[in-house]
Amino acid sequence: MGPNAELPKLKVWKMPEWVEPVVIVSILFGAMFITRKKSYSILNPSSSPSYKPIKPTRDDFDYGRDSFDTDDYRSPSPNSSQYAPKRRRILGIWTVHTPNSLRFARHVHSRILQKFPFLIEMFYWILTYFFYRMTAYLSAVWYGGSVGLWNVAQDHGISILELEAWFVGGKGTGTERWIEWRVQQWFLAGVVAGDVRELLLTILNRVYALIHIPGTVGFIAWYYTMAPSHQRFCTVRRTMSLLNLFAFFTFTVYPCMPPRLLPKEYGFLDTVNAEDAASVWMSGNYVNKLAAMPSMHFGYAFCIGCVFVSTCRLTMRSPPTPDSTGDDLENPRFLKQMEDSTDQETRRSAFVRAAYLISGICYPALILLAIVSTANHYILDAVAGAFVVLISYLGNKFLMNFLVLEDWLLWALRLEKPEPTTGMKNTY
Q: Would the N or C end of the chain have less CB density within 10 A of its end CB?
């Protein structure tokens, strides 16, 4: 097929637009229900375990732990008339005092969060989506309007293609020197021939359009439930949050046009929209179309894959169960036992470990193939996505510097954050 060829007729399998939002909402509210505190009553808090003060540790003063971790500094108890301020460290240099929101633990909205702590995770992702929506607007302002933004993004996309061709390009001076073009043409040749590659391209179109957001949301819900400790979950959550911040900054200052939007002479075809496979999050005001670098599709998939691979090596440990009064939750030694969970060890079966390993390798590989074959990303987009994940993991604790803002927000809302249920037997 030549660079100006039209897209062959593909099999159209149109999914109703309401399916994906319903799936996402079902995952979120399902996770909210599963991770609830079963014995806690919102309407009758006097008959339910109340918030317990968690005694401060030295780490709280050294860096400032995540206030949603089990190391949070909450003192004194909610029944006291005085509430000592929290002490936070900023960049390891300044010590600041912030208000202690524990006094609001019995407010109705605090009790709702105490019952359903996963609502906090839902709030984080709503906030993330808000910042993502701002990237397209800020880029347009930065580059003097939509026309200037489009031209700059197109130049950036062409530059990436040429850079790849210079490093690992094929022979010749035409479109065949680009890896992305050769991959897509292999599938399109199968469409013309009517062989199995036609079915594979149909699957990859839907993988690109329909797995990214539901898959990531599903992973967050799953890992919140299955992580060995909430501290480990927070590490992954902070890594993904910092990945978002890096990516959103890049989208703003370095807009990049995906291959499918380049001029026709570059030979790329938009297979997802041609097959009417696009999801509701890929059209209209839901998406920044000039945000190819880095690839968030691959960045999320690579992060999830790393978690799966690391999980297959972990020993599954059963945490101790707090007593019926909840007094154990005040004991720092007991909290440490819950973190380490060394009292009981159960080695994962070979089948489970193999399933985690295979999933950790195959999921990012599938997403990589999908983003390239559908002409939505360049190879370097995926490389950049993986690099940003590694940088975000190494520096994820940087986000703890923003706990000062969180403390003041909680104070303004008259709200106290809940104790998490991750890594704990949800029977209290």
A: N
The predicted pLDDT at position 91 comes to 86
Residue of 43 and 308 predicted with greater confidence: 308
Angle at 307 between CA 306 and CA 309, to 5 degrees: 65
Closest CA to 428 of 34, 42, 37, 32: 37
Cα distance between residue 119 and residue 172, in whole Å: 55
- Report which of residues 204 and 17 the model is more confident about: 204
In this prediction the pTM is: 0.81
Interior CA angle at 201 toward 206 and 168, to 5°?
A: 110
382 in Cβ contact with 295 (< 8 Å): yes
Instruction: Please name the residue that has the structure tokens 């890896």.
Output: 179
Helix (H) or strand (E) holding 273: helix 271-274
Q: What is the pLDDT of residue 388?
A: 96
Judged by phi (left if over 0) then psi (alpha if -120 to 50, else beta), residue 344 lies in: beta
DSSP E strand stretches across 5-123: 86-90, 94-98
Does residue 256 sit in helix, strand or coil? strand
Cα–Cα nearest to 112, from 47, 45, 60: 45
- Which of 73-77, 147-151, 360-364, 382-386 is predicted least confidently? 73-77
Mean pLDDT comparison of 42-56, 192-206, 359-373, highest-scoring range: 359-373
Query: Over the range 375-405, which residues count as b (16 or more CB within 10 Å of their CB) and which as e?
Result: bbbbbbbbebbbebbeebbeebeebbbebbe
Selection from 24, 23, 19 nearest residue 278 by Cα? 19
CB atoms within 10 A of CB 83: 18
CA distances from 234 to 211, 220, 396, 422 (A): 23, 11, 9, 10
> Which structure tokens are listed for 291?
């945000």
Q: What is the CA 376 to chain-centroid distance, rounded?
A: 20
